[in-house]
Amino acid sequence: MSSRSEFRPDIEGLRAVAIILVLLYHAQIPWFPGGFIGVDVFFVISGFLITRTLLSEAQASGAIRLREFYARRVRRLLPASALVLVATGVGVLVALPSSMWRTFGGDIVAAGTYIVNWRFAFRAVDYLAQDIMPSPVQHFWSLSVEEQFYLIWPALIIGGIALGRRTQRPVHGMIGLVLVVVVLAPSLFWSIFSSGREPASAFFATTTRLWELAAGALIAVFGTVAFQKGATRIVVKGTGLLLLIGASVLVDGSVPWPGVAAFAPIVGTGLLIIGGGGSNDVIERGLSTLPMRKVGAWSYSLYLWHWPPLAILAARWGGLTTWQAVLITLASAIPAVAAYKWVETPLRFGRSLQVSPSLTMSVGTTLTLASVVVGLGVALAVPIGAALVSADDSAPLIGARAIVPGSDAETLLAQVRATTTFFPSPAAATSDRPTLYDEGCQQNQTDSQPVVCESGDPEGDRLILVVGDSKVAQWEPALDVIGRNQEWRILTVTKSACELTTATPATADGPYTSCEEWNDEVFDLVGKLNPELILVSQGSATAWNNDTSSSERDVMVEGMLGAYERVTAQGSRLGIVLDNPHPRFVVRDCVAERPDDLASCAFPLDEIEATGGRSVQQEVAELGGYPILDMTDMICPDGICLPIIGGVLVYRDSHLTATYVTSMADVMEERVLALLSDA
Asked: What is the Cα–Cα distance from 344 to 336, expressed in whole angstroms?
């Protein structure tokens, strides 16, 4: 192991490379689609530097003083991060609609306690969270991973030292063995496995990232290589630099991360660290220049400050152009440098805090509590005065019953303008969903075994099977009412983002194989249940396609026709529940932002009539002769899609609120009966 613990200007420059890549990526610069690898570079650097410091301390004093170690981490991280979290909380309250406060306030709480990466990992696989905008504190996920690593790593070093002394083997070898066996190897295995199976969640998980920090730690344990020949050093570092540049240019968001592809930036960073220090080659000189060292010193503050304004303004404006993102990123450097100079540096190196770990920990606790209080304040600041008419209130919720034959768009819009209270509130809209989700009735995107749940009349003599994704699941509240009225037994078999098809559906990450397997099980289930009627719906219009001679849409149409023929051949009737019109914006956010101009949140049906799953369903119905159950006129009467009808908020996201669906039960019942009689 190298005993050198002096400042490495080349590593400070490497920090600059990492933050520049992240900034370019978030500023939407198209030439660096893999700029997110800057975070991986930070992980390796952090693992190296922290481990080198701990080992130097153990070598000098024979022990690791945990209280002093954590006090240094507190001084390094908490003052700057707490300031950003407070500022972000204020920004969310000032700039964003109240419908976003509860979610983002919870994110701030989780960021302040360094567990937010797990919150994002769970949200990434939550199909019902698909329309939530990127969090203003999403970048805190990497800080959470680091701090969770440092909760266990000092103890493992102490264990390695004790093991070495007990077995009379080299201490560094025992520490390295503990590092590889306990952290690096299992985390690397899980990273490769999990990234291929559930990449959205794996990106944020601590368990898939620990090996990256461990890689840097391993370099510190076994030391950097003191190459004698400058040519060897330049080749090693040149290779490392090429790996970083190549990954940032060639990798994009479609690559499962951090899987096998993450070896490029991890190995590249490791080579730059191993080959650096004390040489005078062009790479070392470039990394060690004053501008690079300055940016490297500011990197933590730049990382903290650049993302919140990007996320808040993107949520406010519905997205950002590249020029807007670039300008916002550049402007964020002003508070970042100011915070570095007047907050981060004074508190990190302040004499009173350096000599008193107890005082430091006390200050750290206070700052953590401040972040939590701010986050709770944002989450609980949701207005409670308006939009809280209860379904049990003495004034019943009319909902779809407010639509009478002959209602024209202007009359309906006038009703919306006159609305003063409605249910659910925008902040509660995402929770106004079918109870089948809370009962675990909808299968997730990973597992392939169908989950069958029952509603309606359990003793009913007619069986209706509801199959598809969340777009058919949203109708369960109305079907439950219909089933009880008609003495029908209703069975739901749904899976997130999965359609009834013989084709392989597509996801953003590739072929949706668990959906394909789920469909095979559903076909068998239909044969066993022999339902009188199968109701299907979906939101997707594309399937996975390796055949360039046909489009992804054509493959989906062919697959739907094949699936429908297969289930109807077994004696069941089939009806297609036409997907509801999809707004091009989040209606609940619009309503929250414009309580005095609710009618402005309406949108014309003809703008979106032939898009997505609706158009595919219509084509399949025409080609296969299948009847359509269409509730569009109860959502968009007279061609205008309304945000609120009869005192009920219509949309929770791209789906309808369960309250509004329930209010359509009477009309839907008539149409299901007509579908059965015509079939």
From this structure: 10
